[in-house]
Amino acid sequence: MRNFATAKDAALRFGWNYNTYSQHERGHSGITRAAKDYARAFKVSEAWLLTGEGSPEDAFAGQSEELREVFTRLADAPPAVQARVLSVAKALLEDYEQSRNTATTPTS
């Protein structure tokens, strides 16, 4: 998570309109449309930002920016694209896991 001394500091850092961000932060205006941008900027989960439930930790903490970007783009993709990517990813992971198991399984 990132910490800023003031809402103005955060708005300036991320290029957001200060008045809008300040209203969101104080709860005077709904943040549903901006939640994804805020969560990404503050490196917290969108669900936590909106509901306060669960962990604020970003699901991709400790991962590469490239992996974070791919999964973020995938989350925004149409369901048909998501299904295709998941199918390919699952097949590749199964191949990887099988090859790893084969390499570590002793042959008697």
SSE blueprint:
Elements: H1 7-14, H2 18-25, H3 35-42, H4 46-51, H5 65-76, H6 79-104
Helix pairs in contact: 1-2
Q: How would you describe what is shown here?
A:
This protein has 108 residues and is mainly α. The chain has 2 domains: 7-51, no CATH class; 65-104. The chain is built from 6 helices and no strands.
**What is the number of helices?**
6
Give the percentage of residues in beta strands: under 5%
Low-confidence runs: none
Assembly type:
single chain
The overall average pLDDT, rounded, is 85
Largest sheet: none
Query: Care to count the β-strands?
Result: 0
End-to-end CA span? 51 Å
Give the helix level as a range of percent. Answer: 55-70%
Tally of domains: 2
Written as H for each helix and E for each strand, in order along the chain, the element string is HHHHHH
Query: Could you say which structural class the secondary elements and strand pairing correspond to?
Result: mainly alpha
* Alpha-carbon Rg, integer: 20 Å
Shape: elongated
Q: Could you give a short description of this structure?
A:
By secondary structure, this protein is an all-alpha fold. Helices cover 63% and strands 0% of the residues. It is built from 6 helices and no strands.
Give the key terms.
single chain; mainly alpha; 63% helix; 108 residues; 6 helices; elongated
